[in-house]
Amino acid sequence: MSPTKKTVHIYNLRPRERDRWIPGDRYPRALTRALLRPWRGLPPVGLSKLTGNLCLGLAKIGQPHQLHHRPDLPPGESVIGILHGPLELVRPLARARRCVTGVGILDFPDQWPDLFAESKAIRHLQSCEWSAAYYRPYYGDRVPTWAVGIDTDTYSPRPDVPKELDFLVYTKLRWPEEHPEPGLRAHCLDALSARGLRWHEIVYGRYPKGREDSYHALLARSRAMLFLCENETQGIAYNEALSMGVPILAWNPRRWLDPNRHAQPAPSPTGTSVAVRNF
Length: 279
Fold this sequence. Notes:
The protein contains eight helices and nine strands.
């Protein structure tokens, strides 16, 4: 008889809800958001997809797990993974239990340079090599890379759907003032049109009708995707495209373009727009 597997406790911590206008109004506001969620059409952001895909993968391999949104401590010998959350909620939890911290806790390593000295964390995960390299001067070899899982059963090729588009253009340009190529988007769209190619543009965070499935429906109709994004540590959207058999043409600036990098003491890494080890 095989031993019972320990439950893995996954933490995706949410900021504490605060009153905004009158005392106690956080409760009806939270209820209203929950009631409106099916009609608001807000596509999930990367970190919520990361958590959902991890839980889906654990279930698929039969690993017991429990997802937490509050920093309540599990039993003393529990296996803990802290993926995301405000530092004021993460710190007490990481100091109390052995854990692996994850990709959504820190934007920059100097936000918690003494992570391993001040907590019981044993690893700090990053989802690609260029991002991990940025953290290693602070944390040494305790920064492995961990790729987020993709639901390849749901996002699979759809040969029965006609390919009506030559290119789906996925635009996720966030820092135009940092661009080494001014007018990149307009130049690419003009080039596609000049070649007589059929294309449709979709913008990150503004999917048609606000629905994530509208993106996947467009992927199914596309022969290829042009991915315009300064930097990704993994990029779930383009990984889903690859899972659906849609090849990617990506613009790669070859350096990290987040403007907040100028305020950091560590030198900027050689970032990429798609998460690969060598580009």
